[in-house]
């Protein structure tokens, strides 16, 4: 084979690779649009009357996740099943965003932390690497850390809306989350930096709870929690 033939063959490989990446980008763009729609919907809970419509917003968000599952099915067909990490960078960011959104919905519904397996099911993908297109552990953890920041914001807005018990519950949840992350030996630099931001979320929520205590509103909140139970 001549040098010219060799490079023609190489160009064929490059072209095929570029075609795959372009097809992946198209689906990822659709996923990003759906993620924006879900985020816009859930952001409504931060508004004054938003707390009254949490169940309805979560229900609508889950309907959007039906679209996500369809788009994920399309994405799986765009590249060879054994080359997940070769193209992972294309969908890593949107997948982390979708993990956060799924985790936020589950928290709003039950005030619990969604498992990686449950998120994978919501998104229509697998949890185990051996099964092909899956939810990478680091992508799951990144999404959970974004949830922590969102809940810190929700704690502040809860007080503004006159819901004094929610920040206390958020504080308990975030502290449990922080304790869980402390058990991990994080090697990924990006994930480690995001985890470092968790301490600021913890501090922000603690300040909200402290402010409620100073104003005597924590007692009212405690009574309210007791009545809810």
From TrEMBL:
Query: In the UniProt record, does the keyword Magnesium occur?
Result: yes
Q: How the protein assembles, per its UniProt entry?
A: Ring-shaped heterooctamer of six TSN and two TSNAX subunits, DNA/RNA binding occurs inside the ring.
Family that this chain belongs to = Belongs to the translin family.
Q: Function of this protein?
A: Exhibits both single-stranded and double-stranded endoribonuclease activity. May act as an activator of RNA-induced silencing complex (RISC) by facilitating endonucleolytic cleavage of the siRNA passenger strand. DNA-binding protein that specifically recognizes consensus sequences at the breakpoint junctions in chromosomal translocations, mostly involving immunoglobulin (Ig)/T-cell receptor gene segments. Seems to recognize single-stranded DNA ends generated by staggered breaks occurring at recombination hot spots.
Subcellular location(s) of the protein? Cytoplasm; Nucleus
PANTHER family attached here? TRANSLIN AND TRANSLIN ASSOCIATED PROTEIN X (PTHR10741)
Q: What is its main location?
A: cytoplasm
Record-level Gene Ontology MF annotations: endonuclease activity; hydrolase activity; metal ion binding; RNA binding; sequence-specific DNA binding; single-stranded DNA binding
Protein known as: Translin
Q: Which organism is it from?
A: Trogon melanurus
CDD domains given for it? Translin (cd14819)
Q: Which UniProt keywords apply?
A: Cytoplasm, DNA-binding, Endonuclease, Hydrolase, Magnesium, Metal-binding, Nuclease, Nucleus, RNA-binding
Q: Which GO terms describe its cellular component?
A: cytoplasm; nucleus
Pfam family of this protein, just one?
Answer: Translin
């Amino acid at each position: 084979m001549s040098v010219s033939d060799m490079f023609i063959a190489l160009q064929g490989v490059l072209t095929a690779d570029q075609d795959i990446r372009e097809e992946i980008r198209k689906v990822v763009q659709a996923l990003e649009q759906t993620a924006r729609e879900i985020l816009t919907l859930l952001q409504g809970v931060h508004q004054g009357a938003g707390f009254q419509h949490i169940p309805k917003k979560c229900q609508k968000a889950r309907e959007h996740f039906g679209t996500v599952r369809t788009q994920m099915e399309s994405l799986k067909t765009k590249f060879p099943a054994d080359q997940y990490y070769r193209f992972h960078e294309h969908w890593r960011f949107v997948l982390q965003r979708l993990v956060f959104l799924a985790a936020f919905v589950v928290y709003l519904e039950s005030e619990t932390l969604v498992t990686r397996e449950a998120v994978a099911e919501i998104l229509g993908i697998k949890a185990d690497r051996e099964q092909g297109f899956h939810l990478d552990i680091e992508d799951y953890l990144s999404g959970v850390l974004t949830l922590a920041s969102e809940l810190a914001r929700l704690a502040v807005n809860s007080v503004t809306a006159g819901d004094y018990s929610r920040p206390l519950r958020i504080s308990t949840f975030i502290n449990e989350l922080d304790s869980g992350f402390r058990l991990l030996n994080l090697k990924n630099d990006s994930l480690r930096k995001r985890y470092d931001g968790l301490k600021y979320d913890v501090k922000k929520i603690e300040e909200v709870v402290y402010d409620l205590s100073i104003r005597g509103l924590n007692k009212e909140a405690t009574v309210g929690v007791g009545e809810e139970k």
